[in-house]
Amino acid sequence: MPRKNRTPGGPPEFFSQQVSEARRFYLDTYTRTNQPVTVVCGGCEHCEPDYRINREDFPFYSIEFVARGRGSLTLKGRDYALSAGKVFSYGPGIPHAIATDPDDRLVKYFVDFTGRNAHKMLRTYDLPPGVVAQLGAPEAVLRIFDDLIANGETDSRYSPLLCATIVQQLILKIAETALMQETRTTAAFATYQACRDLIRKHCLTLKSLDEIAKRCHVDAAYLCRLFQRFDDHSPYQFLMRLKMSAAAQHLQRPNASVKEVAYGLGFTDPFHFSRVFKKVFGVSPDNFRKLR
User: Fold this and answer.
1) Domain spanning 19-183 has what CATH number?
2) For labelling alongside 22, which of 99, 156, 184, 261 has CA 20 to 30 A away?
3) Closest Cα to residue 98, out of 134, 133, 65?
């Protein structure tokens, strides 16, 4: 069956010819859909010594990732040095210029996409058009790009949906690894890690936010700000999840009672314990025991 969304007459005109080697795919370069995310094209390019892109505009959202080599980037009028592990984004209305170092030529991956949620997704995960970041784990992003290209080249009826899903995974992984790189050497992140490790180590005896802050030798409000910045849970929520994980282990023992488990984890009210357990796992402690 012919593909309805294949570009008539070949690959997109905006593909650069200043490459010595390229592995590219293109899925939907002329049809606009109402999907949340639609991948247009993507690939990997080995740049020629004279490689240069200079655009005032671009019709799609784009993410580019440098795997090897060096080069220069001008994005929204600001200059950046490109090297392995750098990632950047651009899109409609974002002028950009990319050039390679002729003595250390760029090898870079790219994906172009559109869709009603594309811009919101980039903005939500700190990669709006015009941003440059250094990744802390570039090999993980490289694997996702390779997976994206492989699925794009498959040219099956599922390729568009698979590629759209992989692009969302790519954006999340970039956000995760960029945060790792940004925070790895900061004092705030080191404090967060130390507090998190202490909570995990002493989760069976800690009972409140104030206790956590006191043991960590930090102010409670500052501790909450650290977790808000670097975590998906507050310090108290993190503590409760650890306690409930321990409770789930205890409840699997023969003849273990809910009251005993609650008291053993520092809860003076078994009903409060049951409410917290259900909030974390979606079932009450009694029903959890029956399921097990």
Assistant:
1) 2.60.120.280
2) 156
3) 65
Q: Are 99 and 52 a contacting pair, CB within 8 Å?
A: yes
Q: CATH: 1.10.10.60, 4.10.640.10, 3.40.50.300, 1.20.59.10. Which one for 187-291?
A: 1.10.10.60
Q: What is the pLDDT of residues 95-107, one digit of tens each?
A: 999 999 999 999 9
Q: Which residues have CB under 8 Å from 281's CB, separation 6+? A: 244, 248, 288
8, with CB counted inside 10 A (0-12, 13-18, 19+), is exposed
pLDDT, one tens digit per residue, over 114-154 is 999 999 999 999 899 999 998 877 888 999 999 999 999 98
Write out the residue limits of the CATH 2.60.120.280 domain(s) in the chain: 19-183
pTM assigned to the model: 0.62
